[in-house]
Every structure is written in C-alpha cells, then in structure tokens.
Amino acid sequence: MRSWEGRGRQVEHLGPEIEPDKRTLRREFLAVRNRLTDDDVRETGRALAGRALELPELADARTVAAYVSVGGEPGTPALLDALRARGVRVLLPALLPDNDLDWGEYTGPDSLVRIRHAGKMALFEPSGERLGPDAVADADVVLLPGLAVDARGMRLGRGGGSYDRVLARLERAGTHPRLVVLLYDTEVVARVPAEAHDRPVHAVVTPSGVRRFAGA
Questions:
Q1: Out of 10, 110, 146, 216, which residue is the most buried by the measure of CB atoms under 10 Å away?
Q2: What are the strands, taking DSSP E only, across the chain?
Q3: Verdict on whether the full-model pTM lies above 0.70
C-alpha cells in the first residue's frame, strides 16, 4: 500500500487487489491541488522549471510541445519562457470541439489568449496561426499534463482523452519524442489504473528532481 499526504488529508493508493478506479483517483488528486495557493503554484513552477531545464532531452531539443498550466497544475510559464530564451521552438495546444488538440507556436506571454470552452475550465491557448493536429509530430520532447504517475511510468490524466489522441497520432506517424510529465512530488505513486491503450512516459519532473522509467 502506498499513501501520500497533501495539506492535512491523506489519500490512500491501494495495491492491485483493491485498485480504485480512475475517476475516484482524479477527484482525490484534484481535491489536494485545489487547496494550493497561488504562491504555492508559482513557487513550485520556478522549482519545476529549474529541474526540467537540467534534462538532456530539453537541452538538445529544437521543438518542444508543451502546455500552459491552469488552476492548481504545477506552473509552466517559467519553463516556457526559459525554453524560448534558449531558442527552442515551443508548441502549445488549442482544444478542438471533439477534445482533439490543434497546435500553435508560443512567442511569449502576449501570444496567449484565454478561451473558455463550453463545460470546461478556461484555457490559455496560442493566439497565432493554427498549425494542425499533426504539428505535434515535429516535437523532440512532449511535456504532458497529468494528475499522477506510477512506478511503471503510467500517467493518470484528467480523462478528456486529448493526450491519448496525441500519443496515438505520434505512434501512427512513426515519431518517438521523449514523453515527460510534470507533477508535484506527492503525485508520484506506487500504482495508478491503466488500460490497454495507455502508454508509459519516459520521465517525470517534480520540484525535487527527475525520475526516469526503464520500461518506457
């Protein structure tokens, strides 16, 4: 059994004999994130950027597919600006009506627009030219959002399926970018439920360091 603590509440992650479903786990992780303050998120984002920039994959990358964090997600703005300052081409997603993702280039904070999608949270998306869903195949590294990752590298997402489509598209294209999920330290757990279509990530970056997964 693996457990973790988050701001006064303990959430249990049970072994495979009593494995909770994805929906239950998502509620638990989101409840902990919702208790974070804006200062918590900003401070974590700075630490996360420092750790991520140490990755050799990012040092060598010419194009990185990333995302703009919202709400209690580990903050990404510092990392996006640091990558761009290095001369990296940064692609950001734009949510389509069917939950697939289009992509556009990040050229600084002024290139973002806040869009509220029906029934979903408001997202910051690139305001410039749309490059099409297949543009992600140009990425050397894909930075993935998530709620947790386990010892196998299996990622627990929010459940919308957008990044499942991205990973399937990369597989069809025959491209093999490095897959990296950005999380809080407490979101690296023993096990999350996985389905046949789920794919492991290569690494997780948290404010305290990097963990790689041998099977990915």
A1: 146
A2: 2-6, 9-13, 63-65, 89-95, 101-105, 112-116, 122-126, 141-144, 148-149, 155-156, 178-182, 203-206, 209-212
A3: yes
